[in-house]
Amino acid sequence: MHSARNPFSLEVFVSPERLTALDVALATALTAAGVGHILLTPVYYRHESPLNQAWFAGSGLALAFLGMLNLARVQSDDATVRGLSKLANPAGTVFLAIVAARLREPQTLAALAVNAGLTALALRK
Predict the structure, then answer these.
(1) What is each CA distance from 56 to 21, 46, 60, 75, 123, in whole angstroms?
(2) Residue 8: which pLDDT band, with cuts at 50, 70 and 90?
(3) Phi and psi for 44 in degrees, rounded to 5?
(4) How many C-beta neighbours within 10 Å does residue 45 have?
(5) pTM, to two decimals
(6) CB-based contacts of 85: which residues, under 8 Å, 6+ apart?
(7) pLDDT band at 4 (very low <50, low <70, confident <90, very high)
(8) What is the Cα–Cα distance from 91 to 77, expressed in whole angstroms?
């Protein structure tokens, strides 16, 4: 008999339950990082213009929303949520790769790694 299991799937190496736990952990970490980014805006950008503060906080808001979209994807079987996640995660990874290449800050590289992991997990189904 032919097996319907995809040999290129992550499930070959890790159980689906562990992948779901990893998915939740990464999505929670990205959401928390985004919220932290917003909360630290007055600390790091207190001497900057209001426009720079708004862009910095807005980037944190985008990260938080991307993390929440991934949490919704894990909790739901909705095709729309899965589709939006499959579009938003690669876009977030490209954005963070550009930012990481320019800034080379540890927190940016960490956010890139987290989002790249979420992208791989979102695209696996």
Answers:
(1) 30, 11, 7, 29, 28
(2) low
(3) -85, -25
(4) 16
(5) 0.86
(6) 69, 70, 72, 73, 122
(7) low
(8) 22
